Amino acid sequence: MMAPARDPLAPSMRGYWTGFVIVLGLLAIAPLVLPEFWRRFTTEILIWGLLAMSSDLLIGYTGMVSFGHSAFFGLGMYGAAAALLTVKPANLWLAILYGLVGAGLVAVFVAYFSTRLRDIYFSITTLVFSQIFYVVIFTWTDVTGGENGLTFRQPPLFQHAFTPVTLHWFVLAVVTLSYLALRRVTQSPFGMVLQSIRENEGRTRAVGYPVERYKIVAVLLSGLFAGLAGVLYAVQNKFAAPDFVLFLISGEVVIFNVMGGMGTLLGPIAGAAFFLILRETFSRFWTEFYLIPVGVIFTLMVIFLPQGLLGFLRRRLNQ
Amino acid sequence: MFPWDQIVVQAINGIVNGMILALVASGLTLIFGIMDVVNFAHGELFMLGAYTGVLTLTATGNFWVALLAACVVIAVLGAVIQVVALRPLLGRDPLYTILATFGISLILQNWAFYKFGPVARRIQEPFTGNFPLFYLTYPWYRIVIAVLSAGIIGGLWLFMKYGKYGIWIRATTQDRIMASAMGIPVPLVHTVVFAIGAAMAAASGVLWGPMVGVNHAMGIDWTLKAFVVVVVGGMGNLGGSILAAIFISLLESFASIWMSPAQAVIVSFVALILTLLFRPTGLFVPTPK
User: Fold this and answer.
1) B104 and A299 in contact by Cβ < 8 A?
2) Does B88 touch chain A (CB under 8 A)?
3) Which of A284, B143, B198, B260 is the most buried (most CB within 10 A)?
């Protein structure tokens, strides 16, 4: 059966794509005009945004709040580290492959167990799983470097070493392609089933969809994109550390989603930007205690603005 | 040779840790059972309770006054949190309560870090006697904590079973609207239950304080452990979570004979996963028909 044709030139769609191109253009020229610190900052926003976007597939579209995305992100980092440390010469694509395989395996493992549970039980199970991986990575010093993590050299892109500008463009390209892919997924029949699970799981099952299988695939997809974000972060920072597997990172990812607006894909990126800007602003006055005001803002947003910053655009962003 | 003496020592350790964990987890499960709130800030209340204990102990010099003061202060804090942050969320998806309490835990933890700094504080135990147990001298204080925790939990149970307000609480758990129709002030019951749960966390924080240093990051571990216990015991099931607390602590104690304590945590996580696979309603509840 054909999906109803969507005319990309319909007025509302035109507005969407115009906005998309403008934002993309601004992000593309950003590294050329911004000073070094903010250039790096923008790249980092994109990476965390990709991680947040991957978890939005679960939180916003399937209605499963994962508190374990740090495990997928961290495995992506360590997978990239494995490729960059064991294979000479260092190869970026191999790093991505290893990272995706690592994150994907973990995602399937976690999904197999956690998707049997719903609501809060799912959240707690994913949280506990991410802690298992944290403990394993933290204590298995011989392989993972334990507390110190692993450091490595940055791989080149097509034989050219990364400059901050090319790295930004590379990250922007990966994040944009991931966004388009995730957008396609959420609008596909598969994505529709996920949204129907969010709205009414029992009815979806009654209609005849194997809900568990859909959920497992959703967690796997989400984990793969989270792993991709982990690889990008590892390549940008040239290290992998157990701190990034700790569930506090998962908590931040959930914060990005809530702040930006769940179920919009772009919202979580905006949420990541908002969070990082808040952190940057407050840590100037409060040093490491920036989480106090950020926590207050977050809690207030949960109570008074549960739709998030881009929540009002939800309908338009999902056209 | 099979390490019998170690097994006995670890069994006692496990029961002692299990009783404290049961005290933390029963507060958590009480809060969940009655208002569907997953309190991510529970460990933070534990930590702030321990800090309140430290402060009152240095001011008054009396451990028991410190214990009481911590309970009262943290109960008030819990009531404030409930009224300010959780009452507006009533009726929304329980997941929002995780998010809100997660935000609160960030605030509390970093506030404690800001206020008390990174150096761990010590609580002096009220008495320092030991008794010989195989190859080591075992502190009486540990036994006292286990008994005290059991006493507090027993008190809670009696209160819930026979006390007038305990019956109010159970009625609210069963049917919020009906209870309200019978004239029970349901919002007040919610606030009081949160305060009781918070006070129990604070009591366990003070009791546990002498065993380890008190620092701002100690709460996270307890939140996680209490979550594991509450899920293994069956969410909202008080008796189940007490049994599960002891069970999990015994597992971890025995595991730590053969591996480092950091790795022993994995054993309890595995127990959780197996429970979720085979008995998703909880290990210590009758199989639902």
Assistant:
1) yes
2) yes
3) B198
Determine the average pLDDT of the residues in B45-74: 89
Q: Where are the domains of chain A?
A: 31-246
Taking a C-beta distance cutoff of 8 angstroms, is the pair B207, B148 a contact?
A: yes
Q: What is the pLDDT of residues A195-208, one digit of tens each?
A: 888 888 888 888 88
B227 inside 8 A of chain A by CB: yes
Inspect the interface and report whether the beta carbons of A65 and B273 lie closer than 8 Å.
no
Cβ burial, residue B117 (10 Å; 0-12/13-18/19+): exposed
CA distance B111 to chain A (A): 6
- What value of ipTM does the predicted structure carry? 0.81
